[in-house]
Amino acid sequence: MATIEFGLFDWIDLARGSVGDLYESRLQLIEFADRAGFYGYHLAEHHGTPLGMAPSPSLFFAALAQRTRRIRFGPMAFLLPMYHPVRLIEEVCMLDHLSGGRVEIGVSRGVSPYEIACFGVDPNVDVTREIFSETLDVFRAGMSNEVLDYSGKYFEFRDVPMEMKPVQRPYPPLWYPSFSESGVTYAAEHGFNFMSLGPPALIAHLMDIYRKVSEASTRRADRINGHVATPKLGAMRQIFVAETEEKAFEIARPAYEDWYKSITKLWHRNSDASYDDFFRWDPCLAAETILVGSVDKVREQIQRVVSESGINYFVGSFAWGSLPPEESRRSLELFASEIMPEMSR
Fold it and tell me: How far is C-alpha 223 from the geometric centre of its chain's CA atoms?
């Protein structure tokens, strides 16, 4: 089995109680993960939906940087069509200094056209792809030069001084999340760290594509993440571990139903059922994209996806829907004490 590291994925979706309490409980959970030896924490960005109660990830990361010491962190992902690239450069540099160089940046053009439209951006795929590309070009140029000069279709910069520079040069490691063949091909061509979601067979297929494309692309002069020698290849799962199978399902099932309502709410508001089946409880359990059960069962499921796909990074989401904070904490504790050591040998 490949050497494996572990991370956390999060939405910070709507839960019972105040939003302030939600932030505090999540920070406490990440503090535990920091002490337990998790590699990284990855936060999704969402807008106009109860799925994302941290719509400005950078603000949450500023607090996180002060509450942790070792765990690396970053967005999964910044939705680049919604960002002004100079502001993004400055925020990332600040976070890298606040954390002592622990930032890792996921980038995406976004999945939901309804969230993109919240910012007055044309959600047409061709448009968001162009804006994504230009924003990333400006981001890299601004991070790597003392003065920013750039001319594109959407952005124009002349002699803009770049006083801020990150701790990690030329810029923090970059990630690209996707569950499509075109997405993983792009990630591999440019050496991005890569994260995906899907059944074990899909994960194995995508990772096989990544390795083949990456091997053929190592000498590309335009490789965006070429400063990272060994990219992380990760799979994400929603997880709930309990002392018994019965207890795990009793707690997780209703909590997941609340999460499902959050992830589909904005789509349903627009009379769109595109993601209804993709996230339903029973199909996700069968596909093992949700892992619920005893320590032994969940460990076996993780070992299967790791051995079949050869990933070197496993990412769990432990707090979602209406899971009480104390139950998420207990699940994470069991995972850290009973599963991680067995798989890290």
Answer: 21
